[in-house]
Amino acid sequence: MNKEIIKYLLFFISISAATLFVSYYQIKNHEKEVLKQEKEMLSITYNTITKAYKTHSEIYFATKINVPEVHALMKKANSTDIAEKNSARGELYSLLIDSYNSMQLFKIKQLHFHLPNNESFLRFHRVDKYGDSLEGVRDTVAYVNKYKEPVSGFEEGRIFNGYRFIYPIIHEEEHYGSVEISVSMYEIVKHLRDEAIADVEFIIKKDIVEKKVFDNEKSNYLQSKINSNYFYEKSISGEGNKLIEDLIGKHPDLSEKILSGDAFNFFTCLDDKFYITTFIPIFNKYSNQHVAYIVVNRSNPSLKYMFKKDRVIDTIIVFFLALLTYFYYKVRKKQKSFEKSNKTLNEIQHIAKLGSWELDAKTNKLTWSDEIYNILNTQPQSFEPTYEIFLNYVHPDDKERLDNTWRESIDTKSVYQLQHRIIKEDRSIAYLNEYAHHSYDEKGRHIHSVGTVHDITNIIEYEKKISSMQNELESIVNHIPDIIFRSKTDSDMTMLFINSAVHKITGYKAQGFILNRVRNYRDIIHPQDREAVEARIKEALNNDKEYSMEYRIVNSLGDTVWVKESAKISMDENGVESIEGVITDITDQKNNLDKLRKFIDIQDSIVLLTDSRKILFANQKFFDFFGYEDLEDFTKEYHCISNLFVKDDTFFHAGKMLPKEEHWIRSLLNLQGREKIVSMLSKNKKPHAFSVSINNYDPQTYIINFSDISDTMFEKLQLKQKAIKDPLTDAYNRAFFDSSIQSIINNNENQNGKTGIILFDIDHFKDVNDNYGHNAGDEVLKTLVKLVERYIRKEDKLIRWGGEEFIVVMYAKTVEDVIRQAEHLRFVIQNHKFDDLPTITCSFGVALHEQSDKIEESIKRADDKLYEAKRGGRNQVRS
Fold it and tell me: Is the entire prediction scored with pTM above 0.90?
């Protein structure tokens, strides 16, 4: 073999190796691009899904949670009174359970309320689990409660993992806690499976589960076969996806990548099928630490075709290089011609990723690369291409536009660029982006064109999916009965968005309000309310606060409609402010309230509407009786009518409420009919007695009727007083003791206390009667009663037990409390100067009544101690 042949053989081997290297490099770049596109597509899909759920949660928070009823219950939930807190939990559950169940149609998994101290207050998905501290477990909850701003993102839970949207609950600058609206990772993974048409798994770090999940919930997790440091969540993965496990098993070097917490993906060929497996990292929103992965596996038939096509192309190129080398060997003198051929080959390699074409305008000869045939789904080079043949593939609706654009680009000597559709051989539709430039001779005649054809079908399909999701969200908003809007902050309230509910409420179509094309929303506000509405919005803008107000609008029929507008000021990423809010039709509530007011005003009794904390409406009788001009005048001194109840144990008053009763109305409802009587002072300070009847107006408010029964009631009270008072001393008598002692004991126990008994009598009282006469003795008894009543509490009772013997029945925690009171009375009596009499002293016996004893036994113990004091020298206390 001569040296010349060896030289060209070495040249052929070298250039073939170089060409194959370039081809291999291009394949790898194409692989990287496909992996990158796959990763970006899955990221967009995942972000679109989570944004859709975020929109659901924001709508639900704005319309169902950030409302006065929930504010009031969360305020109540912050009470230190356990019964009141439990009551608030029950009322909050009853208020929101129906809307919570309906929100599950949108895959909302959890609705979880927390107190400002990060205590779990109410889990709608696990109602029986509350009171546990989320400190150190749910960092996002602690963040929201600390900084009072909303947070959204993934966070591990004590029961479920999910994407969480947490909002602070703030009303009138008072922070009452926070609420979490979340969707489980099960729903996100399911949604991703459906959207990506893929196998999807969710794995979470094992140490996160061990640290945060309730012990009784850890059975929901299973060791992942993907990596030993991760768990499957059973509700999502079951026993795991065998295909994904098999594919990952072919890459034993993935452990380091998995532990890195970075996003990555890779190709795998299994059973002559190509798959792309993508690891999407999930980060804790608060700590920004990697805690989990979503693993997505999708088959990719185009990869198989790409590798086969590249092998064919490489073979053709090597064969072509062999021919070129042989030709060069034969016609080495024609070096210039060979260089031109080599340049053409380089051009073909340069545009190999896209379909390319070349047109000789003189001969009308059109040349296509194999890729154009592939785009059309036909066999490469199976027919001679022409412009007319290509037009036959173009979608009928796009043919005329393409032909006009092509001819116009030639006539105007401009670049040809167009996006259009084609119908491929399999009748499927593809989207193409064409680009070309033309050449002209010195006379300006078109002689040559070269261009590319890019298949952009996948990009268009992704855009359609995103558009479909946006339309779906708009449909949800448009089915909400309230008006939802976003407007500019200008004086015309230029609408940027408004849903279709505006047509139902105002009679005007929504489209007419957008950018104020047909009408300005401010123009339909009632003329008498317009100035106040504009002032309220201006105030909110100046103070950067949320606002809520009621006003009237005039609908398309000229009728007046009452509405309530609740909105907030928001700012986009460019710093542009807008107003976002909800407008609700409250005409029916207003009309019903007006009818109620007219009816109530004709009643002879006091009638009012209240939520137990404040009076919402009162009739004229109320103002006539108490002497106030209106409710604003009344609230300058009081918040509620219960503040006016006379504290007389003969009647009901707020002091008689039991700890488990959340408000005074509930306490009255628990009483028998004849016990529902209160006493109040008129504007002339004259006491009146009222019989109370209560009816529900709605779940949160009550209509209360106070009927004046003073004439009969006070006659009965006077007779009762005579029957239970000692005629000489005006102290209570034994008849009062017998009828009241059990009630006194019960009241003391309801206040977590006991009943103390102090039994005492006057030392040497017989000597007073014998030496100074019975009149003097009577004066000593009367003076003693006044003295003792001055130094005992109002709720303690002094009873004349017989002769010179008395009993004090008192509230006490321990026997030491009773001893201290008895010692105080002994000292006061000993130091009192009785007119024209020597020093008077008393002996005392005390006892603490226990719940297991009879009252007679407690009095017997006190009596024994009294006689022990007398035997011990008198003027002393024994217990």
Answer: no
